[in-house]
């Protein structure tokens, strides 16, 4: 069976002291939970301090984004090597906010994904349709494009280090969560795409997290669905007790 993965995407929130306080509250609430992989993804400036606070705990550290070069003249960018240096074992790539506000397309995200994996990071790779795409009957086409192009060129072994996060854009930060049935339907479709593109072994082992207005009171029923292997949590990850409750919902 696939081990659930629950990650908090803090987005552009929390100063260093707030982030350290949050994980210091979180650690005892999730201590001893071995059945769920737990990750928090602070802002770049808080990574090092939060990583130090997490040392010796069962909570891993992740970045929210990274570039496709190790170093050089790329003003404003951060490399996977720098994320690792700050204590990260994970990064998010392809979040819909990166796609929407910062113009990141499938080809670029595929390059970033491959470089992050080659650099030794594990990656949560985000996909998901907008409301307009869903209402226009384009959901499956969009997901197929994001999977086919975004994950192009990966090997079977790469998928030990990749989780796909299905995050319908209309559910992110809106309070409108996909129903467990809607999530299951999309996840099963994505797993089918992975099977076609990479074979049954990959489709069986890849974790597919759901993201979009996950809260303590809806997490367990979403993650109870057979193809929902965890959650990527935004707003509700900013409070230790709520995030801990979501982690426990995966057990
Ligand atoms: P949300 O964000 O939980 O605040 O909807 C999820 C995400 O964007 O990863």
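Q: What amino acid sequence fits the structure above?
A:
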């Amino acid at each position: 069976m696939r081990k659930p993965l629950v990650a908090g995407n803090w987005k552009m929130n929390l100063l260093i002291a707030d982030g350290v306080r949050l994980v210091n509250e979180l650690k005892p609430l999730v201590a001893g939970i071995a059945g769920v992989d737990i990750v928090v993804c602070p802002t770049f400036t808080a990574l090092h301090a939060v990583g130090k606070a997490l040392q010796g705990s069962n909570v891993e550290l992740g970045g929210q984004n990274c570039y496709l070069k190790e170093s050089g003249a790329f003003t404003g960018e951060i490399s996977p090597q720098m994320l690792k240096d700050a204590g990260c074992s994970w990064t998010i790539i392809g979040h819909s906010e990166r796609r929407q506000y910062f113009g990141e397309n499938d080809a670029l995200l595929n390059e970033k994904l491959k470089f992050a994996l080659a650099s030794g990071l594990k990656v949560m790779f985000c996909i998901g349709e907008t409301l307009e795409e869903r209402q226009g009957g384009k959901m499956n086409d969009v997901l197929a494009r994001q999977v086919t192009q975004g994950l192009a060129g990966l090997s079977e072994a790469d998928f030990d280090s990749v989780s796909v996060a299905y995050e319908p854009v209309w559910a992110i930060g809106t309070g409108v969560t996909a129903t467990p049935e809607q999530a299951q339907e999309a996840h099963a479709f994505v797993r089918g795409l992975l099977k076609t593109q990479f074979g049954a072994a990959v489709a069986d082992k890849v974790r597919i997290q759901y993201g979009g207005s996950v809260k303590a009171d809806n997490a367990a029923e979403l993650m109870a669905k057979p193809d929902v292997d965890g959650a990527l949590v935004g707003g509700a990850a900013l409070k230790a007790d709520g995030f801990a409750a979501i982690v426990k919902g995966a057990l």
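Q: And what stands out in the fold?
A: The chain has a mean pLDDT of 98.
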